[in-house]
Amino acid sequence: MVQRVLVTGSGGIVGSHVVNALQSREESIEIVCFYGDLTDSANTKAFIKEAGKLDMVIHLAAKVAVDKVKKDPSHAYLVNVGGTINLLNAIAEIEHKPSLFYCSSAHVYAPQTYAVSEDSTTEPISLYGRTKLVSETIAKDVCLAYDICLCIGRVFSIHDPKQTGSYLRPSILRRLATHDFNRSFDLYGADSVRDFLTAQQAAKIIVELAINKYAGIINIGSGQPKMIRDFAQSFSTEPLNIAHLGARDNLVADTTLLASFMEKLVD
Q1: For 106-150, what is each residue's pLDDT tens digit?
Q2: Residues near 21 by beta carbon (within 8 Å), at least 6 away in sequence
Q3: Alpha-carbon distance 139 to 88, whole Å?
């Protein structure tokens, strides 16, 4: 039996890996990529209606880049929250309700000295984190009302060779390309700790959660703390004299739930 999966944000870094992960599975899967404008309610409803029967929706589309979100908060809310509302409304109007994977973020948590679990307090300190937390709340309310199976995946610090712009990995690589190794490598938050995993790893986890219709909130991370200075050093063939600038904070995932889920897949 063919499972039909709608993916929003398939053109993004994580989205492209999700599509590849879906294509590589043994099950018969038909991928429907949403290329419309989620901020256009009528367009979104028309697309979902014309897509035919869907078994699941993987919702990845969002405005993520910190600099762009901060520069235009209203548009960030329009895309991240408004787009999610439009997608939920469209799903609510069709007869067969697909399960929904909503891609959230570790930014809904405040930095902590301990690994944060899914029931840790949500106190986003960034505008991006606030847009994702609002969308989480809306998704939970709508999915409860329409009996839609919902998985909220809180993704931690992903990186990928194809990332561009203000993300950490491309920022480090741009600086290394012209860096004088006789000088210090000044790095904001160098002694801060993060939970890094590749976009490909995150995508594979997302697909497993979606295909197996995991219900609830779950952290998507490595569970392994790593200093940002060590992350930067990993991209240099020369030793870096890294100088920490700015504040220090930690944000690492407690991946107990994820580990339990993955173990069950193997059994």
Answers
A1: 999 999 999 999 999 999 999 999 999 999 999 999 999 999 999
A2: 200, 203, 204, 206, 207
A3: 7
Residue 67 — φ and ψ, nearest 5°? -65, -40
Domain ranges of the chain: 3-159+196-221+255-266
Percent of the chain clearing pLDDT 70 (strictly above): 100
**Which of 114, 66, 130 lies closest to 253, judged by CA?**
114
69 near 131, Cβ under 8 Å?
yes
CATH number, domain 3-159+196-221+255-266, options 3.40.50.150, 3.10.310.10, 3.40.50.880, 3.40.50.720: 3.40.50.720
Check if the beta carbon of residue 106 is closer than 8 Å to that of residue 194.
Answer: no
Q: Of 253, 211, 222, 223, nearest to 21 (Cα)?
A: 211
pLDDT digits (tens, 9 = 90+) for 182-196: 999 999 999 999 999
Helix (H) or strand (E) holding 195: strand 193-198
**Residues with Cβ < 8 Å from 222, sequence gap 6 or more?**
156, 195, 196, 197, 201, 253, 255
